[in-house]
Amino acid sequence: MRLRLVISIFPLVAATLAMAAPAPAPAVSFARDVAPILRERCTGCHDGRKAKGKYRLDSFEWLRKPGGSGEAPVVPGDPVKSPLHRLLLAADPDDRMPKDADPLPAAQIERIGRWIREGAAFDGPDPKASLDSLRGPTVHPVPPSRYPRPVPVAGLAFRPGGAEIASGGYHEVLVHDAVRGTLSRRITNIAERVAALAWSPDGARLAVAGGTPGRDGEVVLVDAAGGTNRAVLASSGDLFLAVAFAPGGGRLLAGGTDNAVSCFDVATGKRAWFLAHHADWVTGIAWNAAGDRFATSSRDRTARVCDGTTGEAVASFTEHGAAVLCVAFAPDGKQAWTGGRDARLRAWDAANSDTRQNLDGFDADVSRVAMVDGRVVAGAANGRIRRFAASDPKETATLCGSGSPITALAVDEASKAFAVGTHDGRVRIWKPDAAEPSIEFPTAP
Ligand code: HEC
User: Fold this and answer.
1) Fewer CB in 10 Å around end: N or C, the chain?
2) Ligand 1 site, residue 169, Cβ cutoff 6 A
3) For 257, phi and psi rounded to 5 degrees?
4) 196 neighbors 203 (Cβ within 8 angstroms)
5) Residue of minimum CA distance from atom 33 in ligand 1
């Protein structure tokens, strides 16, 4: 396999460094590329329990049988004559599939179209088997023992208690000792890029969101101690970008290029709900301390506050006027902080969306924000890191960065320290009042 180290994790620093020219796109696989999309977006209405339009697609055999229209859903070689593809593109939302939902992302429609054009072949073990059974255990490539070059740190999380810090690597999660900066262990069998990480409140598990842009996406729960125990909560055709455990750790939220927020029950791994909250990528998710509200940020230029139980939106903030790249939520749930491509950090009222603070001076995309101990820390794409009291944002300290774009930020509730990850593959950890980082280390093995 050719090793391609993809250095950009975050949309704002979307640059890809290929170590070799990309290979021509491989043929589309039904089991690997198409079935996950159908499972995610279609079988809810078209399986043995609900066969809307008298049509089922919960197995390959069913998928090929006409429904109420009597028309063959798939004409191998001809996506235009295939209702299964045509209905994804229908201009009239009443006709379009998935019904009553946002259309599939263009990359997924293109993938299904290409699969049909390439002959609509079945490459699983049994065409009668349910699409669920095609899932199989995903096995990701083994990461290189030593990286030829650094990988941007996207996804960064302290172990509760602060002794360790996890960061995203290339097809792995790297766990470092947070005091010494030494590599403690490598958790492998992870998607190519890690876009976001969260450590469960009991310290036992890590939630990992990531994937390969335009190809696959995954939200997995892995054993933080490095065991092989692994649960795939969601898989799709494109990146997941955000994960957040609810306080208490019973539920996990995830979102990304599906423009949606999914809520999973951590014990069973089952999805409790899925809400297509945004018109573009979900870039960040943050909970309040009580777990009755969460906030989301999105590339659709808005941010939202939602009910922690049902997921329904209760407030929407539209003042950025540009992609919103990150969100932090005050522990009391009264105020959310969002940063965006407008180079501003804004604080707004979680009940009525009124702007409370409007901070500029970043001179670049505000890529990450977090709250710790009554303070707000924000990082920008020009490497600038600013820290200030949430109650009086004018008291600003600008901390020394390396100039490399800030791609990740994590806080340690125990010691009130915070850590910043950068595009050049380094992590710096600051003690609460320090002007200089207490430790700095490269994450790459
Ligand atoms: C919310 C329910 C719902 C979802 C989700 C949904 N469908 Fe449908 N589908 C319907 C209904 C209802 C019909 C019947 C026609 C109509 O009302 O437009 C239908 C009809 C169809 C048909 C025509 C079958 C025939 O022969 O008449 C196809 C093909 C189809 N859907 C494919 C899909 C695909 C592919 C997805 C996922 C991308 C999807 N549907 C998701 C509700 C749904």
Assistant:
1) N
2) no
3) -75, -5
4) no
5) 97
Give 91-110 pLDDT, tens digit per residue: 999 999 999 988 999 999 99
Please list the residue range(s) of the chain that carry CATH number 2.130.10.10: 156-442
How far apart, in Å, are the Cα atoms of 375 and each of 297, 329, 355, 386, 437?
20, 11, 18, 10, 17
Three-class DSSP category at 432: coil
The residue length of the chain stands at 445
CATH topology of domain 156-442: Methylamine Dehydrogenase; Chain H (2.130.10)
**Cβ atoms within 10 Å of 15's Cβ, excluding its own:** 10
Task: Provide the whole-model pTM.
Answer: 0.71
The ligand 1 atom at the shortest distance from the C-alpha of residue 71 is 26
| Ligand 1 in reach of 71 Cβ (< 6 A) | yes
pLDDT at 12: 40
Flag residues of the chain having pLDDT under 70.
Answer: 1-25, 135-137
Closest by alpha carbon to 245, among 221, 211, 276? 221
- Extract long-range pairs of 224-233: CB within 8 Å, 24+ residues apart: 224/159, 224/166, 224/175, 224/187, 224/199, 224/200, 226/175, 226/185, 226/186, 226/187, 228/189, 230/189, 231/269, 232/135, 232/138, 232/269, 233/207, 233/262, 233/264, 233/269, 233/271
State residue 398's pLDDT score: 83
Q: Is the minimum distance from the CB of 67 to ligand 1 under 6 angstroms?
A: yes
- For residue 24, what pLDDT is reported? 62
83 lines ligand 1 (CB under 6 A): yes
Residue given tokens 């766990």 in the structure block: 175
Q: Which atom of ligand 1 is nearest to the CA of 73?
A: 29
Q: What does the alpha-carbon distance between residue 277 and residue 314 come to, in Å, rounded to a whole number? A: 11
State in Å: Cα 27 to ligand 1 middle.
Answer: 26
Q: Determine whether the shortest distance from the Cβ of 86 to ligand 1 is under 6 A.
A: no
CB-ligand 1 contact for 97 (6 Å cutoff):
yes
Q: Is 116 in the pocket of ligand 1 (CB under 6 A)?
A: no
The closest residue, in CA terms, to atom 10 on ligand 1 is 52
Greatest distance between any 2 Cα atoms in the chain: 70
Return the bridge partners of 440, or none. Answer: 428
Which of the listed residues 38, 99, 110, 258 should we mutate to test ligand 1's pocket, taking the one with most ligand atoms within 8 A of CB? 99
Ligand 1 and 53: CB distance under 6 A: yes
State the Rg of the chain over Cα.
Answer: 22
Rounded to whole angstroms, what are the CA distances from 297 to 241, 256, 327? 11, 10, 6
Per-residue model confidence (pLDDT) at position 7 = 39
